[in-house]
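W.,

You were right to be curious about this one. When I first looked at the sequence I had no strong expectations either way, so I just let the prediction run and decided to look at it fresh. Below is the sequence, 221 residues in total, followed by the output.
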Amino acid sequence: MSTIEKYVAVGATHSAGESNVPARTADQESTTASIHRKRSRQGKLKKVAVGIVFFLVIHLLILMIIGSLIPISKPKFRIQSVTIQDLNVTDDFDSPHFNMKLSSLVTLKNSNFGAYKFEDANLTFSYKGAIVGRAVIHKSSAHLRSKKRMAIDVILSSNSVPRDFNLSMDIASGILPLSGRSRLRGKVEYFKVVRKHKSATLNCTLAINLLGKALQRLRCD
């Protein structure tokens, strides 16, 4: 082989070697770029997650501050009306007695800008301090800025009234004085986040007309 042929062969081999280098470099660059893109996406996702958590924390703090500044009023708990049914009265001086079914409409006025949720409670009716009837008010809620109406029936009986309460005199007068009391324990809830405990008290006096079998007077504090 002549000197010229050797030179050409060596040049061809050198050129072939140089042509393989760019191919390996391109693969490496593609892999490196893919890794950089993956890391960039992960970094963006972390930033988005941190931003969402930060927003939620700030939002919660704002709601708690607003809830602490909003004044909370006590719900108004009242007996609105009463209907007398099945009234039976014995005006015997030695053993006076009465029993009746009292159908009452009870209202709960919530003037707050959050719902008022309350637990089970008792509504009791008394004659001069002696309980003559009791009904259960089941747990429920009153929507914001609303008045909740509840129909409650209770049987009243003088079986537990002591003999020295002069029941016979009230029966003879035709007017039976009663009192109704209840207490709701609940909480006012804002945005399902802020909760403040509040109780609602019912304190009413009634006068039942025994002859007319109707409510003569109703007053609630």
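Here's what jumped out at me. The chain has two domains: 1-69, 76-220. And, maybe more interesting for your project: The two ends are 125 Å apart (CA to CA).

Coffee later to discuss?

I.
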